[in-house]
Each structure stands twice: as C-alpha cells, then as structure tokens.
Amino acid sequence: MEVESSGSKVLVVGAGPTGLIMAATLQRFGIDFEIIDKKDGLTDTSKGLSLNVSTQIVLYLLNLAEHVGVNGQKIRKLNLVHEKDRVMSVDFRKLSGDRYLITQPQSATEAEIYHCLQCRGVEVQWSSALQSIDECASGYFVNIVKNGSEVIKGPYRYVIGCEGKKSLVREKIGALMESKQYSHYFLLADFKVKNTIDNDEVNYIESGGDFFIIVPLSNNICRVVMVTDVKPSSEYALGNALKNLVNSYYDKDIIVSEAVWTSSAQIYLSVADKIQLNRLFICGDSFHLVSPIGGTGMNMGIQDAFNLGCKIAAVINGIQDESILHKYQTERLSVVKETCAKVDVTTRMIFDKIFRDENSGFFVPDITKRNLFKKIYPESYSGLSLRYPMNSPVEINEQYKNQYVGCLFENTNIFYSGPFKEKLLKPILIFNVDESSDFSAVQNMVSLVRAFIDAKYSSVFHLINIGNSSEIFTGFINFPIDCNLPVGTFTLLTCEGIIEFMCDIESGGLLLAYIECMYVKTSGMLSSVGVGV
Ligand SMILES: Cc1cc2nc3c(=O)[nH]c(=O)nc-3n(C[C@H](O)[C@H](O)[C@H](O)COP(=O)(O)OP(=O)(O)OC[C@H]3O[C@@H](n4cnc5c(N)ncnc54)[C@H](O)[C@@H]3O)c2cc1C
Question: Edge-to-edge, what's the strand order for the sheet holding 73-75?
Fold first, then answer.
C-alpha cells in the first residue's frame, strides 16, 4: 500500500460547513493543514439555512463576511402566529446595532466559503475517505481511500473530525452520543413563492391543529417546515402536503411551483459525551446532532470550528501551552448542551401546542409582553446569549483574574489623541465592562479577545479590565486622559496615542484587526492574512 508522508501538522476530515470554517481559521493563522472529504465536490443540498449573528461575527473575523451570505435574505423578525393572530415576536432590531439572521441554502454558504478558501490557496482533497486512524509516537497515521486506492498518510499532530453524523474520529475518541428520543417527524421543502410573503420575517404558525414554519430565502424561494406524527409516503406527497397547507392557510395560491427540494426525518437531538482524546477532536455534527427546529446545527458547528481552530493555531504558533486545548471541551460542551436544552424545550412546546394552551400555565402572549423577554429572545435566537464558563476569560494577573473582558456598544468612533511615545513601552488595551449591566455580547467578545489577543498578543500587550477606572489609572500609569472610561468602551493606549472604541461586536473585530496590522504583522506570523482597517 502507498504511504504518503505529510508535512502538514493538522488533518481536517470533512468539508461541510464545519470543516470549511476550520480550514478558514487555520489558514488565517498561517497553519499548514490538509482537508479531505469523501464526496467528489461541494454539497448541492439546501439543508441548514440560517446564519445567526454569532456566525456572522466569525465570518467577519475570518475575513469572509464580504463574500458569504451577501446574497442571502436578511431576517429581522420571528413571529409566533396562532391562526391569523401574531401572539409573539422575536425582533432582532431590539438588539443594539443593525442585527438580523441571514437565510440562504447551505449549498450557497459552503460554495461561498470554499471560493474564498480557494482564492487563499486552500484546496479540499475530494474523493478521499478516511478509513482508520493509528496513533504512534510522532502523531497519527490515517488510512484514506483516495479515488478508489488506499493510501496511508501522516504523521499528523492533530486530527479534527468534521465528518458529520457518522464520525470515525468520534469512534476513535470513544465518545458516546447521549440522545433524546422523539416520536415526531419534521418535513421540509423549498418552494418558489409569489411575492406576497413578508420577506424579512419568519412565521411559526399554529393553525387548525397543524404546526408549520415559513422561512423566506432570497429570490422568492421559501422553506416550509412542518412537524407531524406520521412519515410521508413519498417526496412528492410531502411536497404536495406542504404546498396545500400553506396555500389553504393563506387562502390563495402563494406557492405556485412543485417543491425544488424536500427532506424529512424523525426529530433528533444528541450530543457526544466527550469531544477530545489527546490530539483528536470532533466538531459540528460529529459532536452534536440537532433537528432543524430553531436552526442551530450548522451555527454551532461553525462556532466549534472557530473556537478549536484558534486554539490549535495558538499552540502550533508557540503562543499557548497545549493545555489550552482542554478548554475546547469545557467551553463548547457547556454551550452546546445549553443550546440543546433550549431546542428541546421549543420542540416540546411545538408538540404539545403549548403556545395556545391557557390551562398549561404557560401562556405566551402574556409573558412576551414583558421587557425582559423582548430582549432575551432576540439574544437567544441570534446566538449572542451563549456564555462560556466563568473561569475562561482573559487573565492578566491574579488581581484581574476571572474578570470579563469585552464590550458591546452602539456606535463606533475612532479617534486619536496623544502622543505618549516617551511614557509607553507596551501598548495597553483597556476594557471597561460592567458585569452587572446587560451587555448581551460580552461573552462573545471574551472569546474573541481570548482567541485573538490572549493567545497571540499577550507578549505585546497589557490587557486590563476595569470596573473602577480611577483605580487602574492611578495604580498603573499616570496619563492625562479621562478616567471615567464609559462602560462598554475599549481604549487602546499605543505609543502613537489613544484609540477609543465605542464599540459593537464588529468594531471589536475591527480593533483586533487593527492590532494585527500594527503589532503582529512584523512577527511574520500573519503575513498571509492581509487585514486592514
Ligand atoms: C434537512 C435539514 C435541515 C437543516 N436545517 C438547518 C438550519 O436551518 N440551520 C442550521 O444551523 N442547521 C440546519 N441543519 C443542520 C446542518 O445541515 C448541519 O448541522 C450541518 O450540515 C453540519 O455541518 P458539518 O460540516 O458538521 O457536517 P456535514 O454537513 O454533514 O459535513 C460532513 C462532511 O464530512 C464528509 N465525510 C463524512 N465522513 C467522511 C470520511 N470518513 N472521510 C472524509 N470525509 C467524510 C462528508 O462527505 C461531508 O461533506 C439541517 C440539517 C438537515 C438534514
């Protein structure tokens, strides 16, 4: 059998959305890797269609946001409708900044990411199926069937399984899937529709004993999802059933064509009990399988890949100790379980038709009028409410240990004042985050800052999180700047002057990009990134 030695340190198995984002993250940090997939090319299926706000942030930080999802549909509201009455809305405009979900077929998302990767010199090795993995002193050798012939490749220091539902890497890790059983089915179909449906709103409709969801995509296509307790006899029957359901609900022929894509399955929810063994990892559907209710599966996979990819890159680039890789499991298992618990609740509410049941004690119209819910729901459905465990934010020293770092604010203002050349040896990044305040994306910023700054730049930066600004300014440095740094503000003190950010998440990314340009390019590690501010 042919043995091919590999100079790459990382093997990514699977080029679905998770594997492609893993590739984009490793590429961004200049890591040498290979990515293989058993298929002979990109997927052409519609499947996962929503890119939530957290995913959009990852796309932004990987310099993909200008290319991925730009032709998708912006969704600003999710409505729960009982018969013809709207009983509740999740309004993403309640979040700070211009927030929305993007919907488009998964095939489009994958193709757009892959196109960017190709422009950056990354090619997927198609028709290459992983068969087995063997560990040895120098790493992992893998057996691959490539275009019909068996080859052994390696050694790789890390193997990352992004192979979806059936994962060999997961088997090798010895992980068990903890599953919840449901007896219901979901039916899905994409249709061409007349331009009479609100294009930027998703409707969850409960009518005449049926429950279905209508999700607009761009180009007058919409996805219809229905929950039933019987499996349809054929794809054709499925398409017809959904078409009739929608047309009779609206009392006119909104759907004029046959379905352009259909799918159905029993509702599922399962999570692996562990996601790492030594230098083997799993991400995406290999790690968690969530039925489409709530549109979380692909988004979680993208977050897994970004989280792990940053950490592996930091270790390979010699910035972090390998022990940081254990945080992947701690962080991602906790948020994935939290998300699955929410999906489980929503799924059961749909089965039980609890939305309309006044006797059940949970009457949606009542609770959703409250301000708390007006904010909590948009955070939750945008992916912004997830929090990593408390013990993982940036740590600068004992005094500031376990403090949050990050912020979320409406507008971006960047301005300089200074200079402070004589006084500053190292730039100082100061964040003021009031933990008691309601900054929905603080934890997102924490993970970003940790991934980008703590991992890579701790040697060039002082990172300071302040609750009480006067304390730090008198204790640390003696600068003629406003000590009342507003909560939610970054201040970057550099040799050139002060840069202040009244910041939302994208602007946080902008700050990180700035830091890369100013302070890291010279080290040569990010020479291929080409970020600019
Ligand atoms: C009908 C349907 C609707 C959905 N709707 C949504 C939604 O609205 N929102 C959402 O977020 N998610 C949704 N999902 C979930 C979403 O599609 C998945 O979560 C997502 O595809 C997972 O991506 P992945 O890259 O982890 O796995 P996959 O997309 O399954 O990709 C895995 C890749 O690994 C390759 N592979 C497998 N085994 C091997 C091997 N041995 N060697 C080499 N390559 C291998 C496969 O060929 C494949 O390309 C939906 C799923 C379905 C089925």
Answer: 50-51, 101-103, 73-75
